[in-house]
Specification:
Helices cover about 75% and strands about 0% of the residues. It is mostly helical and about 120 residues long. The protein has one domain. GO terms for molecular function: protein kinase activity.
C-alpha cells in the first residue's frame, strides 16, 4: 500500500510555513537551525527506545518530536511519526514498529539537505 506521504516527500509544506511564520524569516531560520542541530540528534534516542521496546518512552518521545516536523515544513513526516506513535501505543509487533520507524528515518535523512538548502536561501 502506498502511503500518501510517498508522493512529493522531497518538498517542504510551504503553506504551513507561511501560516506559521508569515514574514518572520528570522524565526523560521532559527527554528530550522534548532531542528537540524538539536532535534535531529534526538531521533537516535527514539531509535534506542524502539530497540529496547520501551513503548511508553517511544510514545512520549514521538509526542515531543512530532510538532518540530511541522514547524519546519515536514508535515508529511509528521504524519509518519504519528503512525509510529500510534503503533507503539497499541504495542504492535516490534518488527512492524521498527520497519515503520526505519522508513521514517530514511525520509528524514533525505529531507535534511532540503532544509539546509532552504536555510541557505533564507540567510542570503
Amino acid at each position: 500500500m502506498t502511503h500518501f506521504a510517498d508522493k512529493g516527500i522531497d518538498q517542504l509544506d510551504r503553506a504551513r510555513l507561511l501560516q506559521l511564520y508569515e514574514d518572520d524569516t528570522e524565526t523560521l531560520i532559527s527554528t530550522i537551525e534548532m531542528f537540524l542541530d538539536e532535534v535531529v540528534p534526538a531521533f537516535q534516542v527514539l531509535e534506542s527506545l524502539i530497540e529496547s521496546q520501551d513503548w511508553t518512552g517511544v510514545c512520549g518521545m514521538t509526542h515531543q518530536l512530532r510538532p518540530w516536523l511541522g514547524m519546519v515544513g515536514l508535515t508529511q513526516l509528521e504524519h509518519r511519526l504519528e503512525e509510529v506513535e500510534r503503533l507503539a501505543k497499541k504495542k504492535t509487533e516490534y518488527e512492524l514498529i521498527r520497519i515503520t520507524y526505519l522508513n521514517f528515518t530514511e525520509k528524514l535523512e533525505a529531507m535534511q539537505p532540503v532544509l539546509k538548502a532552504e536555510l541557505q536561501l533564507l540567510t542570503k
